[in-house]
Amino acid sequence: MIQPGKTFSHGYIIDDSVYQGFINIFLDRNPLHTSIEFAKKKGFISTVMHGNILNGFLSHFIGECLPTKNVIIHSQEIHYLKPVYLNDALELKVIVLDFFESVKTVEFKFHFNNQFKMKVAKGKFSIGLI
Amino acid sequence: MGENELLNQVNKIFIDVLDNEDIILTKNTTAKDVTEWDSLTHIQLIVAIEKHFKIRFISSEIRNWKNVGEMCLCIANKLNK
Predict the structure, then answer these.
(1) CA distance A106 to A76
(2) Is residue A115 part of a domain?
(3) Which residue among B40, B44, B62 sits closest to A102, beta carbon to beta carbon?
(4) Which of A10, B14, B64, B72 has the most CB atoms less than 10 A away?
């Protein structure tokens, strides 16, 4: 798990349950996310999914998909590169950047590709091994 | 690198990581003297120091430090190897 260069991947789909669940929990009903007409006026092909849905996927990956459950997140940064739409199928690719044995901390970089192999987001996160 | 320059660079790392421009480290400074220096920020500080100086500590070294002076001595020893 901790060897720099090691890679992981996991697939996610932003289906209606994810989209509506996010809205119901966090109450972000900005028209960019809820009005097709508004989104099209702003130059998008449809309503844009909340960027922080991807953070939720990252949370799932860190908490559930790494080889150990003994983890705690220290930091995370994400850059959104392309809009993501309802029912997009995303692939999260993660690579170990560095391991700091002294404080049992692992740094990763990641990106999300959509079903067209376009990179829609990228970033880094750091976790502690507990 | 001289002692003062090393302490100055470590001070800058503390200011950046702990987001407190008022931090002034001395050799005798301990975590009790810096409000923001707790067990979680300690990890961030160590990672930042390892990256900045391109060195690696081992966990036993960190546990033995009693103050910033001992931290700086450990850094200096690694830089001089």
Answers:
(1) 12
(2) yes
(3) B62
(4) B14
pLDDT digit string, tens, across residues B37-69: 999 999 999 999 999 999 999 999 999 999 999
Q: Name every chain B residue with its beta carbon within 8 A of the beta carbon of A105.
A: 43, 47
Q: How many CB pairs under 8 A join A and B?
A: 31
pTM: 0.90
CATH of domain B3-80: 1.10.1200.10
Task: Tell me the domain boundaries of chain B.
Answer: 3-80
Domain count, chain A: 1
Q: Which of B40, B50, B61 sits opposite A100 (nearest CB)?
A: B50
CA distance A100 to chain B (A): 7
Q: Does B61 touch chain A (CB under 8 A)?
A: yes
A24-64: pLDDT as tens digits:
999 999 999 999 999 999 999 999 999 999 999 999 999 99
Tell me whether residues B59 and A128 touch, CB distance under 8 A: no
Say yes or no for a CB contact (<8 Å) between B59 and A105: no
Please give the structure tokens belonging to residue A130. 């507990």
SS (H, E, C) A32-80: HHHCHHHHHHCCCCCCECCHHHHHHHHHHHHHHHCCCCCEEEEEEEEEE
In a domain, A61, yes or no: yes
